[in-house]
Specification:
Blueprint: H1 23-31, H2 39-49, E1 54-58, H3 64-78, E2 88-91, H4 95-110, H5 117-129, H6 139-144, E3 153-156, H7 163-173, E4 177-180, H8 182-189, E5 201-205, H9 207-212, H10 216-224, E6 231-236, H11 242-250, E7 255-259, E8 261-264, E9 270-273, E10 279-286, H12 291-303, E11 313-317, H13 321-332, E12 340-345, H14 351-363, H15 375-378, H16 387-392, E13 398-403, E14 416-421, H17 430-435, E15 445-452, H18 459-465, E16 471-472, E17 476-477, E18 486-487, H19 495-510, H20 512-529, H21 545-552, H22 561-571, H23 582-586, H24 590-597, H25 614-643, H26 658-661, H27 665-738
Parallel strand pairs: 1-6, 1-7, 2-4, 2-5, 3-4, 5-6, 10-15, 10-16, 11-13, 11-14, 12-13, 14-15
Antiparallel strand pairs: 8-9, 17-18
Length: about 750
C-alpha cells in the first residue's frame, strides 16, 4: 500500500490538541510519519470532540480524511461501543474513495496496541454486568448480555459482495465502524439486525458530490434511520447551495469551517485562492485538429525532460466514458507511446475491472524507483496497460491514467505530478477537484487544461473570477514523434498533427471495432459539450466539427442533428427553424464539403468492413447472412403478391413504425423525448381540467344539497299534517260511536187538500 501523503504542517503538533488524544492514537500518527496537523485538522478535530457538528470546506490535499478519522477513533476510545452496535458511519460518493478511506482507517486501527484502555473498559463493563448469582442466570440471558468490542471497520460497496454478505460480515465480525457508498449503507441500515441507536458520529465525505450524483433520497433515508443525538461532519473541497438543505436537516447548530489559500500578489496584497499554493494551474491553447497531438507532446515533455527526469504519474481527464475507451486503445497502438504505461478508468467498467485498474495505478512504481527485476511485476495487473505496452515499456516508464470524473473526487493517488484536462469539465466546480489530484499534501504539481483557440479562451477569465488563476502553457512543436517537444508558435499546418490523424484513420480503416469506437466517442463528446454549464463559453455552434473530427480520426461524420446543422451552416442554407434544403445538401460532393468545413468523408462499404476480432467478425457475417436471407424472402413475397394482382409496394400503406425505424438513433431519441414531453403536458392538462370540473361542481352540489334539505322539510310538514288529520278523523269517529241511539218519531201533519 502506498504511504500516507504528508500534509503541510502549519498548525502545531497533535499533542497540543485539547481535549487531548489517546496515547496510542498519538503513537499511531507518529508511526505513520504524520507528526503535525494541517489547518483543517486543527480547526475540525476540537469542534467534533466538543460535541459540535461541522461543515468543512477546504482545498484538495489539505488532510480532510484525518480531520474526521482522528476524532472518530478518539470518541470510540473514550466511549467503547458494544459488540453488534453501530458506533460510527462514513459515507462516500464512489467506491474508490470509500476503499481509500477504509484503508487509511484500517492502518490506524492496526496501529493500536493489544492491551489498550478499550480492553480494560470492556473488562470493567463485564464485571459491572456480572450477576450476583451467576449460576441462576439462564444460558439465553448469558448470550444476550452486551459485550464491549474492539472497534473494527467494515467496507460496504457495490461490486465486491452482495448486501446479504455485508450484513453477515457486520453481524459475525462485530464491526462498529462502517465505511461505504450511500446505496449499500442504506440497505445495511434497513436490516433489522443492525442497531444504530448508539451511533456517535456520522461523516459525509465529498458531501456536495453525494448530492450531485443523485443520492439525496438515500441520504434522507440514512438520516432518518440514525439517532438525532450524534456528531455529524460534512467535508468537501467545494460547497454547493444544495448542502444548505442537507445541513439544516441533519446538523444541529453546525460550525462552518473554511480553509482557503492566500497568495501574495506582486503589489504586496494578498488574494484568496481555491487551489493549493504548491499547484501550478496552466492552460494550453491550440486549434481543434492539433489538440490530441498537443496532449501527447505535453505528456512526453513532462515525463521526459532534458535531464532524464520528469513526472512519475499523470492523469488525463476526458468528458465521457466512450472517449476513454477509444483513446486508450488508439494511443496504445501508436509505436511511440510504448514508453508510457496506459491505464483506463471510467464508471461503465465492471467493478472488478475498476478495482484492478485503480490498484494497479496506485501501486505501480514511480520513475527512478523501479528495478529491472521488478519490471514484469509492475505490468502484471488485470486492469493496467495494454499487452503491447506491458511488453515494451521500460522499468522506469511513467504511468498515465485516462479517466473520467469518476477519479476526480477525494482520491489520494500518490506520486501524481501532472494532471491534463483534455476536455474542460462540464461543471466548473469539478475543475478544482480534477486539478487537486496532484500537488497533494504539500507536494508540488502541475495541472494543464486544453482549450480550443477562440471563444474557449474566455474560460481563463471565467476561472479567475472563481479564484482559480491560470497561467499560459506554451504550444509545443516536435520534428518527429520520438523527439523531445520544444515550445514554439502554432504553425498554420502542423505536420506531426496531420501524421497522427492519418495514423488514427489508418487504424480505423483496418478494424471496424475501432471505427465504431471512434464514432461513439465523437458523438458522446458532442453531447457532453452541448451540456456545459458555462454554455456562453463552450457553444456547440462555435465548435469546429470538421477539425474535431480529424482529431478523432473519423472516417465519416455520424448521422446526428448537430452534424447536419453544422453542415447546413457551412453551406449557408439555414432557413427558418435551422434546417437546410435536402436536395442541395445531398448533392454536395466531398470536395466541396472539405473546402467548406475541412472534413472529407471516406467511402465505407459496411458489407465488407470487417472486425479484426475473429469472434465478432463471425457474428457479423452470420447476422449479415440472416439479413440477406430475410431480404430475399421478402423480395420473393413481394414478387408473388404483385403477380397475384396486389397493389405495388410503393402504393401500399407502410407498416406502422417503419419510417421511425429507418431514422438515425439521435432523431429517434429526440422523438422519444418529445413524446415524453407531450405525454406530461397531456397529463397535466387532464389534471387541470379535472380540478376545474371539481371546482365547478361544488356550487351545484351545495345548491342541490340545500334544495334537498328544503324538500325534506316540506315533506316532513306534510307528513305531520296528514298524521294530525288522520288522528282528528279517528277521534270524531270514536265520539260518534260512543253516543246512545236516538228514537225517531214521524208525525204526519194534515195537508191542504185532505178535507176536500
Amino acid at each position: 500500500m502506498a504511504a500516507l501523503a504528508k500534509a503541510p504542517a502549519h498548525a502545531g503538533a497533535w499533542s497540543t490538541l485539547r481535549p487531548a488524544l489517546a496515547p496510542w492514537l498519538l503513537e499511531a500518527l507518529a508511526t505513520l510519519d504524520l507528526p503535525r496537523m494541517t489547518p483543517v485538522q486543527a480547526a475540525s478535530i476540537p469542534a467534533l470532540l466538543s460535541h459540535r457538528d461541522v461543515v468543512v470546506e477546504a482545498v484538495t490535499g489539505s488532510g480532510k480524511t484525518l480531520a474526521y478519522l482522528v476524532p472518530l477513533l478518539q470518541l470510540l476510545a473514550a466511549t467503547p461501543p458494544r459488540r453488534g452496535r453501530l458506533a460510527a458511519l462514513v459515507v462516500c460518493p464512489t467506491r474508490e474513495l470509500a476503499q481509500q478511506v477504509h484503508a487509511v482507517l484500517q492502518r490506524l486501527l492496526d496501529a493500536r496496541p493489544q492491551s489498550t484502555a478499550l480492553a480494560a473498559a470492556a473488562h470493567a463493563h463485564e464485571e459491572e454486568e456480572k450477576p450476583l448469582y451467576p449460576d441462576t442466570v439462564p444460558d439465553e440471558e448469558k448470550e444476550a448480555q452486551p459485550v464491549l468490542a474492539r472497534s473494527g471497520a467494515l467496507l460496504v460497496v457495490g461490486g465486491k459482495h452482495r448486501p446479504e454478505e455485508d450484513y453477515r460480515a457486520f453481524r459475525d465480525e462485530g464491526a462498529t465502524i462502517v465505511v461505504g457508498t450511500p446505496g449499500r449503507v442504506e440497505e445495511l441500515l434497513k436490516r433489522k439486525g443492525v442497531d444504530a441507536r448508539e451511533l456517535q458520529m456520522l461523516v459525509l465525505d465529498e458531501a456536495d458530490r453525494l448530492l450531485d450524483l443523485g443520492f439525496s433520497a438515500s441520504l434522507q433515508t440514512i438520516l432518518s434511520l440514525l439517532p438525532r443525538q450524534r456528531r455529524t461532519g460534512l467535508f468537501s473541497a467545494t460547497m454547493s447551495d444544495a448542502l444548505a438543505s442537507l445541513a439544516t436537516m441533519g446538523l444541529r447548530n453546525p460550525a462552518r469551517i473554511t480553509v482557503s489559500v492566500r497568495a501574495k500578489q506582486s503589489d504586496g496584497a494578498t488574494g484568496e485562492r481555491r487551489a493549493p499554493a504548491s499547484l501550478q494551474n496552466l492552460f494550453a491553447v491550440s486549434r481543434a485538429e492539433n489538440r490530441l497531438a498537443l496532449l501527447l507532446r505535453i505528456l512526453r515533455r513532462e515525463t521526459m525532460d532534458a535531464e532524464g527526469a520528469g513526472a512519475r504519474k499523470c492523469i488525463v481527464y476526458f468528458a465521457t466514458c466512450a472517449q476513454v475507451n477509444y483513446f486508450y486503445k488508439a494511443l496504445a497502438s501508436l509505436p511511440h507511446m510504448h514508453q508510457l504505461r496506459l491505464f483506463s478508468l471510467h464508471g461503465k467498467q465492471t467493478p472488478s475491472r475498476r478495482n484492478a485498474t485503480f490498484e494497479s495505478f496506485v501501486s505501480c512504481l514511480p520513475v527512478g524507483a523501479a528495478a529491472a527485476a521488478a519490471a514484469s511485476d509492475v505490468g502484471r495487473s488485470a486492469g493496467g496497460g495494454s499487452k503491447a505496452s506491458r511488453q515494451q515499456h521500460a522499468p522506469e516508464a511513467a504511468a498515465v491514467l485516462l479517466c473520467t470524473d469518476v477519479a476526480a473526487r477525494g482520491l489520494d493517488l500518490p506520486d501524481v505530478d501532472l494532471v491534463v484536462q483534455y476536455d474542460a469539465p462540464t461543471d466548473p466546480k469539478v475543475f478544482s477537484h480534477r486539478a487537486g489530484r496532484t500537488a497533494r499534501a504539500g507536494r508540488s504539481g502541475r495541472a494543464v487544461v486544453l482549450l480550443n483557440r477562440g471563444r474557449e479562451e474566455e474560460f481563463v477569465d471565467f476561472m479567475l473570477v472563481r479564484k482559480v488563476p491560470l497561467a499560459p502553457y506554451p504550444y509545443l512543436l516536435s520534428t518527429s514523434p520520438k523527439a523531445l517537444p520544444e515550445p514554439g508558435a502554432e504553425p498554420a499546418e502542423d505536420e506531426q498533427a496531420l501524421l497522427l490523424a492519418s495514423q488514427l484513420r489508418a487504424q480505423n480503416r483496418r478494424d471496424r471495432e475501432s471505427h465504431e469506437s471512434s464514432v461513439r466517442a465523437f458523438v458522446s463528446f458532442l453531447r457532453a459539450y452541448s451540456k456545459h454549464e458555462a454554455a456562453y463559453i463552450f457553444r456547440l455552434r462555435d465548435l469546429d466539427l470538421g477539425a474535431t473530427a480529424r482529431a478523432f480520426g473519423l472516417l465519416r461524420m455520424p448521422s446526428m442533428p448537430e452534424v447536419a446543422e453544422a453542415r447546413s451552416r457551412a453551406l449557408g442554407l439555414i432557413k427558418g427553424k435551422g434546417k437546410a434544403k435536402d436536395d442541395e445538401e445531398k448533392t454536395m460532393d466531398s470536395q466541396r464539403e472539405r473546402e467548406l468545413w475541412g472534413f472529407e468523408q471516406e467511402a465505407v462499404d459496411l458489407r465488407t468492413f470487417a472486425y479484426l476480432d475473429p469472434t465478432r467478425e463471425a457474428q457479423r457475417l452470420e447476422s449479415l447472412t440472416a439479413a440477406d436471407e430475410k431480404a430475399r424472402v421478402a423480395a420473393e413475397a413481394r414478387a408473388a403478391a404483385q403477380a397475384a394482382g396486389a397493389a405495388p409496394e410503393g402504393k401500399r400503406k407502410r407498416m406502422r413504425g417503419t419510417a421511425v425505424a429507418e431514422e438515425a438513433w439521435s432523431q429517434q431519441k429526440a422523438r422519444k423525448e418529445m413524446k415524453e414531453v407531450r405525454r406530461d403536458k397531456r397529463a397535466r392538462k387532464r389534471e387541470f381540467l379535472k380540478k376545474e370540473r371539481e371546482e365547478a361542481a361544488k356550487p351545484n352540489e351545495e345548491q342541490a344539497k340545500e334544495s334537498e334539505e328544503d324538500g325534506e322539510e316540506d315533506w316532513t310538514r306534510e307528513e305531520q299534517e296528514e298524521k294530525r288529520n288522520a288522528k282528528r278523523l279517528r277521534k270524531e269517529k270514536m265520539e260518534r260511536n260512543s253516543k246512545p241511539a236516538e228514537e225517531v218519531i214521524e208525525v204526519a201533519e194534515p195537508g191542504f187538500f185532505d178535507g176536500l
